[in-house]
Amino acid sequence: MNDTIVAISTAFQEGAISIIRLSGDDAIEIANRLFSRNLLDVPSHTIHYGMIQDNDQPVDEVLISVFRAPKTYTKEDVVEINCHGGIYITRKVLSLCVGAGARVARPGEFTERAFLNGRIDLTQAEAVLDLIQAENTQGASKALSSMKGSVTRLIHPLCEDLLQIIAHIEVNIDYPEYEDVEQLSQEVVLPQAKEWYRRIEKIIKQAENSYQIKKGINTVILGKPNVGKSSLLNALLEEDKAIVTDIAGTTRDLVEGVVHCKNVTLNLIDTAGIHDTVDIVEQIGIERSLKALDKAELILVVLDASKELDDEDKKLLALTENTNRILVYNKNDLNKPEEGISISALNQEIDILIDEINKRYESQIHDSNEVTLNNERQIGLAIAARQSMKQAIDALENKVELDLVTIDLQDAYTSLKEILGEVSRDDLLDALFSNFCLGK
Ligand code: GDP
């Protein structure tokens, strides 16, 4: 029932070695047909030196690793052919495998088989992809821990506890005559449901916090012309991406840049100075910066510490009143204000601002080091579970019969199980595994 798949598992370019991987019932048989030596009876987890042959014609000198099911990546028989890493040779070996009966694998199909054969759950399969795509130590170690099942261990106990409640209610309904089993009431189930809700709430919050730190904080630098926005951006970027001049209103376009401020990544958007102007080009920039404000998660409102606040400053203060903003007094080399966050963008003295930003995201940074759900699919399902539980709690508070309440409890349970891929739909799997590179 498991046809044998084959793929080039290393990057398809010239290199010292390429690995062609086979998985499936006939993997060893197929490799054996191409190999100069007999592989049929070799023990599992052994490596063999010999030649790949095309009808007795030598093709390449290779090492073949044989892994017998079930202790393999896919839980199927797996063979890896280490050949020389030329593009021609690699492709030739692949096509010989196909000629001998293997089918070319779809992207991610090896990992998909590992999942379908029950070696890993869906969060672990996703972690394989995260690990391949990781760009730094933090990302890689998080992916590795998920691959080893940390997300599973986070979600599994919640599923178990929920299942206990559901099962108990169902026993009550199906076997009302059982005297040994406590007859549950809304009053008994309600605190359990609330406790469960609190736990999933915490997991979601941590995941969202962690996700925000991972993707970076969308940050807008706002201020009237000449207060030093571009200078601040440059100080942050430590490079000249925006043009700094002392002619009012020169920053006409949005300038984007990503900066790492200690533990926080800012996705920076510099804006045209927002102020009343007749300059039409500048006006366009202003409209765009107002749009950028909508997307901002953090606003750095830059004020000139060397001057009194004027009406334009006050307008900006009013505009950003209820946002997550930091008032930044720039040019403190000219006049040092008594309090607040004061910097000198010109002299690159901005540490106090960076500290303030890190302080503001302290709890998110903390959460990002914890085990959390790793992507939007997982978080979305957790939110669906929380929603179902909320409905269950409302129903319990309104004394709705328990046999109706279990419908919501079941929904919550199903959403959680889906995080682990235990009730996953085919279309979801297709979408997920097609993100993989070939041969993984
Ligand atoms: P923007 O229009 O808000 O982007 O302001 P710029 O960054 O272009 O700066 C306007 C002028 O203020 C330039 O001449 C800068 O050199 C100057 N400037 C910026 N930051 C500072 C600062 O911290 N101290 C002093 N003394 N001048 C500054």
TrEMBL record:
Cofactor(s) for this UniProt protein: K(+)
Binding site for Mg(2+): S230, T251
Binding-site residues for K(+), renumbered to this chain: N226, T245, I247, T250
GO aspect biological process, one term: tRNA methylation
Chain positions recorded as GTP binding sites: 226-231, 245-251, 270-273
Annotated InterPro entries: G_TrmE, GTP-bd, GTP-bd_TrmE_N, GTPase_MnmE, MnmE_dom2, MnmE_helical, P-loop_NTPase, Small_GTP-bd
Annotated ranges, domain TrmE-type G: 216-362
Domain of life of the native organism: Bacteria
Main subcellular location: cytoplasm
Stated role: Exhibits a very high intrinsic GTPase hydrolysis rate. Involved in the addition of a carboxymethylaminomethyl (cmnm) group at the wobble position (U34) of certain tRNAs, forming tRNA-cmnm(5)s(2)U34.
Family from the record: Belongs to the TRAFAC class TrmE-Era-EngA-EngB-Septin-like GTPase superfamily. TrmE GTPase family.
Annotated protein name in UniProt: tRNA modification GTPase MnmE
